[in-house]
Amino acid sequence: MPDNGDLTRRQFVRLSAMAGSGLLLTRSMGLFAGTNPAASIKSRGYAAIDTSGTLVPWEFERRPVGDNDILIDIKYASICHSDIHQMKGHWGPQQYPQVPGHEIVGIVAAVGKNVTKFKVGDRAGVGCMVDSCLDCENCEGEEEQYCPQTVFTYGYPEESSPTGISQGGYSTNIVVRDHFAVHIPDHISLQEAAPLLCAGITTYSPLMKFDLEKGDKVGVAGIGGLGHMAIKLAVSKGAEVYAFTTSPGKVKDILAFGAREAIVVDDITKLAPYRGMLDYMICTIPAQYDVAAYAAVVRPFGVYTQVGMPERFELSVNNLGLSISRVNFNASLIGGMKETQDVVNYCADSQILPQIQIIKAEQINEAWESVVNKKARYRYVIDAATF
Ligand SMILES: [Zn+2]
Ligand SMILES: [Zn+2]
């Protein structure tokens, strides 16, 4: 490292990245004579090192800021149940250390020379994906998540990453191709914007594709981070919302979110009175459950979308149960980048905000336990200044 006077390491990293991007102010140039413009970016965060579900502090490197990349100084990252599933190996063997986190917001600290979408100082967010081919039918159709070459935000092979895999947002910064970052408008706080990057888009996308109309009866099953956003979004579009939860302690919140009714499904027979009643249902339950029993709450030829991801990504379905209800069953994966920008703008404009609890990095492990035990209310947001 060259003599960089009294710059902190973080400032140094930021400035050297900017130097690599041709953005460094001329008056500072002298400081960096001899600096490698393609220097990797130092990052610090919390990583899983095995399947235990316990994260530990970890320092690592990110790729240098490329011509189409931006560097984001992360301010907040929120906790999604997917982080826990993946780190614990529920979705298959993982490479460790691995930094989870795909609800990421911060401030742009450097931009590559081809980048026009962002400038230094912009508020930016990153969700569940960080790259794709940008050339196939799905990419051109603005559904990049269905591109065969999509790189998801953590744990995916990524040649450019010094660790060989993508590393997520429980960290101080991230380098990402500009296309895969969205703008965070000024009229929403960064901490409230963070959960929109997965929980928001994952529920917004199928709701929009269903084309829901005012007065439609919409069910939401599983009222956690995703489910509480689904209620708020559906209510904001004029739907009559029925929320299904296994937690009696959430009923009051559910009604406050605007649902018409909160149904406590402590026993599957509690669903029977609602049979055939709904036009649409979105299910966020991230575990095995009785799919056919829930699907039967939707009217024949109505639509049912699964967004919760259980262990091994597997759901068993009683085929007879599903056939009797004649529901159009589908599963949905996040949403494209344009739609992600749409949901962030929509939530900022309409003030549809997630209910969050800010935590410090050292509380992540405890927070994960609360998520697993259904105690989260409703999204934990990590203050990145504590990494
Ligand atoms: Zn998620
Ligand atoms: Zn593609």
Q: What would the keywords be for this entry?
A:
disordered N terminus, seven-stranded mixed beta sheet, six-stranded parallel beta sheet, 24% helix, alpha/beta, 2 domains, Rossmann fold, 11 helices, globular, 387 residues, binds zinc ion, Quinone Oxidoreductase, Chain A, domain 1
Describe this protein's structure.
With 387 residues, this protein is α/β, with parallel strands linked by helices. It has 2 domains: 4-198 and 353-386, Medium-chain alcohol dehydrogenases, catalytic domain (Quinone Oxidoreductase, Chain A, domain 1, Alpha-Beta Complex), CATH 3.90.180; 199-331, Rossmann fold, CATH 3.40.50. It has 11 helices and 17 strands. The strands form 4 sheets. Strands 3, 4, 5, 8, 9, 16 and 17 form a 7-stranded mixed β-sheet that branches.
Radius of gyration: 22 Å
Report the major sheet.
7 strands, mixed
**CATH C-level name of the largest domain:** Alpha Beta
Alpha-carbon distance between the two ends:
23 Å
Bound molecules: zinc ion
Shape call: globular
Based on secondary structure, the structural category is: alpha/beta
The CATH topology of the largest domain turns out to be Quinone Oxidoreductase, Chain A, domain 1
Number of helices: 11
Order of helices and strands: HEEEHEEEHEEEHHEHEHEEHEHEHEHE
Number of discrete domains: 2
Q: How much beta, percentage-wise?
A: 15-25%
Beta strand count: 17
Unreliable residue stretches: 1-37
What is the helix content? 10-25%
